From TrEMBL:
The lineage of its organism: Bacteria, Pseudomonadati, Pseudomonadota, Alphaproteobacteria, Rhodobacterales. This is Transcriptional regulator, TetR family. Keywords: DNA-binding. PANTHER family: HTH-TYPE TRANSCRIPTIONAL REGULATOR RUTR (PTHR30055), HTH-TYPE TRANSCRIPTIONAL REGULATOR UIDR (PTHR30055:SF223). It comes from Litoreibacter albidus. Residues 11-71 form the HTH tetR-type domain. Pfam families: TetR_C_41, TetR_N. GO terms for molecular function: DNA-binding transcription factor activity; transcription cis-regulatory region binding.
Amino acid sequence: MESQTRAKKMEATRKKLIAAGRKAFAKKGFAAASMDELTAEAGLTRGALYHNFGDKKGLMAAVVDQIDMAMATKAKEAGEEIGGGWEGLLAEGRAYIEMALEPEVQRIVLLDGPAVLGDPAQWPSQNRCLQGTIGTLRALASEGLIKPVDIEALARLLNGVALNAALWVASSEDAQGTLPKAIAAFECLATGVLNKAPQAVHESG
């Protein structure tokens, strides 16, 4: 019972620190965010931050993971709304890229995230998204809808296109103007994996 209570307190502390870090990183950016200020915001001490996350970078990783997973969930919902499948996969990509316009996503995940945490392709959240894309592509491949290409390779490249499109939008001086160009290019590249052969056979018959 005591161990359960301790675990709940630790989880509550982590949530407070992540919420405070998320607020501070969004408002001031990672470099300018003060550990003293964000721990005071959470009603905790530096010791609590060190114990739970090691340092400010560790807290940043937890914040990025939380936001990026929320982005993935929102993108998946966009795909499910139109029935999944190939169109759903495209909708997921579009939704992910569009979130690059959100100030919090832009600053924490797409600008400070890579600078502080390194290659986004190595983030746990991106790897979880990769598994979802692999599952969708396998289903499409089983229906003969996509070309016979290695599924993992295809998933990595498709996710990479969407991620890099979002990074471009976030870093652009004209994010609103860049967004439609990024989405159009993503869709153009993505549709290259579709298997046109069945349609061509049907038309020739």
